[in-house]
Amino acid sequence: MLPLFALFFAAFAFGTTEFVIAGVLPQVAQGLDVSVPTAGYLVSGYAGGIAIGGPLLALATNGISRKTLLLGLAIAFTIGQAACALAPDFSSMLLLRIAVAVAHGAYFGVAMVVAVGLVPEDKRGMAVAVILSGLTVSNVIGVPAGTAIGSLWGWRATFWVMCALGVVATLAMLALLPRTTGASNRPAGFAREVRVLARQQVWTSLILMLMLMIGQFTLFTYITPTLLEVTGLDESLVPWVLLLNGVGATIGVFLGGKLSDWKLMPSLITMLFLQAMMLAVIYAVSPYPVPMIVAIVIWGGLNFAIGTPIQTRILTWTADASNLASSLIPSGFNVGIALAASLGAAMLNAGYGYRSLPVVGAIAMLVAVAVALASHVSEWRRKAAPPLPAAAE
Q1: Which of 6, 55, 186, 347 might form a disulfide with 176, Cβ 3.0–4.6 angstroms?
Q2: pLDDT-derived band of residue 181, with 50, 70 and 90 as boundaries?
Q3: Is 37 exposed, middle or buried, given 0-12, 13-18 or 19+ CB atoms closer than 10 A?
Q4: Helix-strand-coil percent breakdown of the chain, rounded to 5?
Q5: CA nearest 368: which of 321, 302, 322?
């Protein structure tokens, strides 16, 4: 478990630096002499760096040993945080954030491949859950702590603390990761990396990921105004609801890991259907504070419980050429987040209220159920077996 802890801690650091910018955005805008909307490009720029740069970097570093690559990415993260803390203007800050995001995208793809290679086959889901929990814990602990540090000592102090986290993460991986990290990192070749994406288990899983993000972020992007205007919560209660949502997400990650190691596809199909029902419940109870808070917590747990088996499935069915496919996981999530936020904005601009947003999510989840069922039936009929890792060929 110690190697997995090292990977978790680095995931926590990357997750915190991605999301904490939202908590200190007004201070960053003031410090760099730009408007808050302009400073918002630090968020979208980071997402773009993950989505586009992560897969490209993964392909470019195909021949580097995974431990060396992970250490290099952690060092890039650490240097990037120090540079952000010293950034003299907005343009340099934006370029530095994008550079860190490229490392972020490559890190999560490689870390998940390494994680599943460190454990027996029946523990793959839990290994993926450990890496994913770095993101959920960063939202529960890292982002509030980083925001508080920024409020007390300024936003540059937040990035210096991120730099210190990077140093600890680098040292932890240096000390705890074995020299050979599970599967071989023998270059599979660009053509083969692309070919594995044509397996129906892979592209259908990417569709499921997209539907999951629409089900989550069409509503979550606008969760604060929804809770204020539709549910009628006091503004002081919203952070506590978001904290409970994060706690539910953290529990959900590990629940999804357990279910992935038990019966992956039946569990995934069931959870997708339950999430469709939960979004319908959110629509029904949104005007009522207590039921709405309970529903938001369960919904948050299911979001991350579903994410674990989807990623485990992609890693399982690309074990013989995993670099590109694994890097598409964080890329796909960020593309889905951007599409979901844009879809929500389009609906609101068209005159639909905040209450309509979970309806879109419920429809996306029902589409996901149909895709997952069709994929599972096809796999069962063909009696298809996952490929062996490259090292075992």
Answers
A1: 6
A2: low
A3: exposed
A4: 85, 0, 15
A5: 302
Among the listed ranges 59-63, 84-88, 101-105, which one has the minimum average pLDDT value?
59-63
Q: Which residue has the tokens 């490259």?
A: 390
pTM, entire model: 0.79
Interacting residues of 12 by C-beta distance below 8 A, sequence separation 6+: 134, 135, 137, 138, 142, 165, 169
Q: How far apart are CA 393 and CA 388, in angstroms?
A: 6
Q: What is the pLDDT of residue 393?
A: 39
DSSP state of 318: T
The answer to whether 267 and 252 have CB atoms below 8 angstroms apart is no
Average pLDDT, the chain: 88
Q: Which residue has the higher pLDDT, 68 or 383?
A: 68
Cα 134 to Cα 17: distance, rounded to the nearest angstrom: 12
Domains, the chain, in order of start with CATH, read 1-186 (1.20.1250.20), 191-383 (1.20.1250.20)
Q: Would the pLDDT of 320 be above 80?
A: no
Contacts of 9 (CB under 8 A, 6+ apart): 134, 165, 168, 169, 172
Closest CA to 282 of 262, 267, 297, 296: 296
Structure tokens at 207: 């569709």
Q: Would you state the structure tokens that stand for residue 336, as one six-digit string?
A: 């889905």
Q: Which two tokens stand for residue 215?
A: 């089900």
HSE (CB half, 13 Å, CA atoms) of 188?
Answer: 24
DSSP 89: S
Q: Is the pLDDT of residue 185 over 80?
A: no
Q: Minimum mean pLDDT among 93-107, 119-133, 158-172: which range?
A: 119-133
Contact indicator for 343, 360 with CB cutoff of 8 Å: yes
Give the long-range contacts of residues 85-89, CB within 8 A, separation 24 or more: 85/156, 85/157, 85/159, 85/160, 85/163, 86/156, 87/32, 89/32, 89/33
